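Hi all, posting the design record for the shared folder.

TITLE: backbone redesign
STEP: 1 of 1
STRUCTURE INPUT:
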């Protein structure tokens, strides 16, 4: 047996446990849900084939239209979190005493359950929480502010929580990218008279393009699939201001028991995720962000 063949078999053996989990808990459920879009299926009634009626219903469902707009709006957090992550990675990429402690500190929210994070921020945003208490003590507010109880600020609060938790994850990826840049390139630029900003924007950022592409793609997928903070904090309210496709699909399935319609909403979400991912993918490819060699 050739060395290449043995290496390939060995690689698949190492991947086998993860592949089995993906097949059992991701691919098979997805394959099983697709036929449901053509049925009126619930656990409390008869199963009836209805063709494309679920899609027609989705087209005239006002709440679903709001959920689509809110989901796409939520993607606006992607460039903000990427810019903040790059800036933070640059700050912690310094050779300072105790810098490892700060890197760990910024990463702690990443390994914390999003449900736990949402509960903590619910207490902080509460009318009697620490944020409102400070604002009134400092004279910045005359009465408690309803951060997640107002349709004007609820989505912004959810975006902020997502930004706060995901910042450390992308920071570590960008930090790895910064540390992979050869020091000789930066030294040569400084020798030629480049200042710190010129080195950052003309050398480091272009060489981070593969990381920016990868992180942006992951961030877009995560943004479209947002669920936990909305489930814990707002339940899609107030007045559907935080209603997103993922949560609306959950309501239809597990509260109204309309599994066929829920599967249809999930399929639409998958299409939106795919389209946005293609946009990010094509943009990254056209701008030389797919490989490290193209970014140099």
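Okay, here is what came back for every position:
SEQUENCE:
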């Amino acid at each position: 047996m050739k060395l290449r063949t043995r290496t390939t078999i060995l690689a698949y053996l190492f991947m086998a446990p993860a592949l089995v989990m993906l097949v059992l808990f991701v691919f098979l459920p997805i394959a099983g849900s697709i036929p449901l879009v053509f049925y009126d299926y619930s656990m409390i009634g008869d199963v009836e084939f209805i063709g494309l009626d679920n899609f027609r219903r989705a087209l005239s469902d006002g709440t679903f239209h709001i959920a689509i707009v809110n989901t796409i709006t939520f993607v606006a957090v992607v460039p903000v979190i990427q810019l903040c992550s790059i800036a933070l990675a640059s700050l912690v990429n310094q050779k300072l005493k105790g810098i490892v402690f700060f890197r760990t500190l910024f990463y702690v929210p990443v390994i914390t359950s999003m449900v736990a994070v949402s509960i903590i921020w619910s207490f902080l945003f509460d009318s009697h929480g620490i944020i409102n208490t400070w604002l009134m003590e400092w004279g910045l507010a005359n009465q408690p502010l309803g951060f997640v109880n107002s349709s004007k600020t609820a989505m912004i609060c959810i975006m902020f929580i997502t930004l706060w938790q995901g910042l450390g994850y992308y920071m570590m990826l960008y930090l790895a990218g910064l540390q992979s840049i050869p020091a000789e390139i930066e030294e040569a630029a400084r020798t030629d008279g480049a200042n710190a900003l010129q080195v950052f924007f003309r050398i480091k950022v272009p060489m981070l393009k593969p990381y920016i592409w990868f992180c942006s793609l992951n961030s877009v997928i995560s943004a479209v699939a947002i669920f936990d903070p909305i489930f814990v904090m707002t339940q899609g309210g107030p007045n559907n201001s935080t209603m997103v496709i993922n949560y609306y699909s959950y309501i239809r399935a597990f509260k109204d028991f309309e599994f066929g319609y829920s599967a249809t909403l999930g399929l639409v979400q998958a299409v939106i995720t795919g389209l946005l991912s293609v946009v990010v993918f094509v943009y990254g490819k056209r701008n030389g962000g797919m490989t490290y060699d193209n970014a140099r």
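COMMENT: The chain has a mean pLDDT of 88.
Let me know if anyone wants the other runs.
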